[in-house]
Fold:
Amino acid sequence: MLPKVNLARNTAFSFIANASNILLMVLLLMAGRYLGDVDYGRLTFALAYTTIFGWLSNFGLEELTKRTLAREPELSKRLLGNVVVWKVILGVLAYGAAVLLIQVMKPESPAVRSIVYILGIAAALKSFKTIFLVMFQAFERFELAAISQTIHNVLALTAGAWVLVTTRDIFGFVIVFTLVKLVDVIITYLLIHRNITRLVPQFDFRFMKDFQIQAMPFGLFFVTILIYSYIDTIMLSAWRSDAEVGWYNAAY
Structure:
C-alpha cells in the first residue's frame, strides 16, 4: 500500500518554494543595476558556466534517488551516504575540469577566472543541497523543502542586496553569495537529520556503479537542457565583450 498523499498540501508548499524564487530574480535585477554592464556580463557568464559544470556532479543521481526512495524508503540511509560521497568525487572532478577549461577560454581575463573559481564552489554546494531537497520530496515532506528554499532565497536577497548597495563590488557579491550557499546546505542537512535520516558517509563501489549507470539517461537529458539554456551566454562571451554579455543577459 502506498502512503496517503495530500496533493493539495504538497502543491501549496511547492508553490511557496517556487514563488520564493522571485526573490532571486529581484537580486539579479539589483545586480544589473548596481554592478554595471561589464561586471554584470562577467557575473552572468560565470553563473552559466559553473551551472553546467555543477550539474556534472549530479548527472541524473537526483532524479533516480527520488524515484528509488519513493518506492523503497528503507534505503534512505544507505542511499544518502553513498550518493553524498559519490557527489564529492564527481564535484571535485567537475570543479577541476571547470578550472582547467576557463584557463583556455579566458586567458586574458583574470577577473572572470576568479569569479568562476568562487562560483564553482557555490555550484558544488548547490549540488549537495538538491540531493537533500530530493529526499524531502521522496518522503512527502514538501513543507521542509519550502522552508529550506525560502530561507535560502531570503538570505541571498538580504545579504546580496546589502553588498551591492554598500560596495557595488562583484567579488564581495559572489563571496557572500557562496557563503549563503554554505549556510543553506548546513540548514538543509539539519532538517534532513532531524526529520528523515542521518548522514553516514559510506561508499559501496558496486552499488554506486549500478546506480550511476541507471541514472545516466536522466543525466544526459538534463545536461542537454542546461547546455541548451546557457550555451548562448558562453558563446557570446567568447566572441564579444563582457559589457555586451551583460546587455544580452539583462534583456534575456
